[in-house]
Structures are given as C-alpha cells and as structure tokens.
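Hello everyone,

My group is preparing for a crystallization screen and wants a predicted model to guide construct design. The compound we'll soak is calcium ion. Before spending weeks at the bench, it would help to have a computed complex in hand. I've included the protein sequence and the ligand's SMILES below. Output in structure-token form would be ideal because that's what our pipeline reads.
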Amino acid sequence: MVPKFLFLCLLVGTVITTAKSAIGDVCPTSLLDKIDNFYLQEYNGYCFSFIVNFKRTFDEASKQCAQDGGTLAMPKNKDLNDFLQNTAFDSYGSIDELWIGLHDKQKEGEFQWVDGSDVTWTRFAKGNGPLNIWLVKNVEDCAAIDPLDGYWHDSLCNNILPVSVSVLNSKKGYICQYLKPQPGAMSTNTTSTT
Ligand SMILES: [Ca+2]
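Reply:
Good plan to model first. Here are the tokens for the complex, ready for your pipeline.
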C-alpha cells in the first residue's frame, strides 16, 4: 500500500508541477508574481492575461500590458480571435467588451495593430471600424472584442468628459499578450522603476 500511495503522490505532484510550469514557461516571470495565474492562458506560444475585473481606458490598459513587456492582444486570425472570445466568455464569464491592440488613431478608417504590422484579417461588427459611417467614427479610434460573438467594435479610446458622465466612460476590461524573453536575449521592454 505504501509504495502505491507514494507513487500516486509523485504522479499527482508531477501533474501539478507540469500544469504550473506550462504557464511559467510562456509568461513573463514578473507577470506570474503580479496577477492571479487563473487569469493567464497560453495559446500558440504566447501568454495572454485576461483583465476582466478591472476597467481602464485604452491608453491605461496599453501601459499596464507594457509594464511586463507585453501589448494589448492582437487577434490577427480567426483561430486566435475565437480563442480569446471563447476564453473570455467560457472561462471568465465576461460579457462586456475587452480592449484589443487595434486602433485608427493615426488616420481615420485605417486601423493598425499596436505592433505596427499590417491588418490582413478583421472581425469588425456591422457598421464598425472602417464601415462606421457616423461622425463619432472620428473619436472612436480603438477596438474592443465582444466576448458574446467575437466581433470587434470601435470605441472611445479615452475619456473626453468627466467619468461621472457614465455613457461616455471609455473604460473597459482588456486582454494583454506576452512573449516570454528568451534566456540571454536583450530586453527592450524594461520599464523604468522611477
Ligand atoms: Ca475611428
């Protein structure tokens, strides 16, 4: 009995260790210590943090992601977009829009990813993004994903009026994306501690 019990303990311990190290292998160490690992997910070699319980403006959310060397999530294809949508809804019960790393701040109607790469696939909802025909399109320059259907909506990036005007409160939850620095690689994303 004793050897069997010990074997079981070792097996369970190995499984738990393996599960933890999967996230640890892909997420920045600084992030692992900062937020509840329940909100971290791995997909295709990238680490994603789902910040569904804290609402921030687009710029505030971008800064938070950058603190650990990341960016807002960039779902550049349907597979990743489906993963982000399903995880936000199924795992975290999120029904509110979440910021992603896409905007048309530079030129109205020309959306770009926050890493500067070309936008070759989009999932804008009807009448949103480049298809937005209303005047508000000039101030709705940042994109968010709807966890209910995976479609994107352009929205106010930052508050332009006091937050007390709740209908114009631009704060949302958000999803960050990280690629863990490889050992020996020079980090260019280290933020100042001052
Ligand atoms: Ca716009």
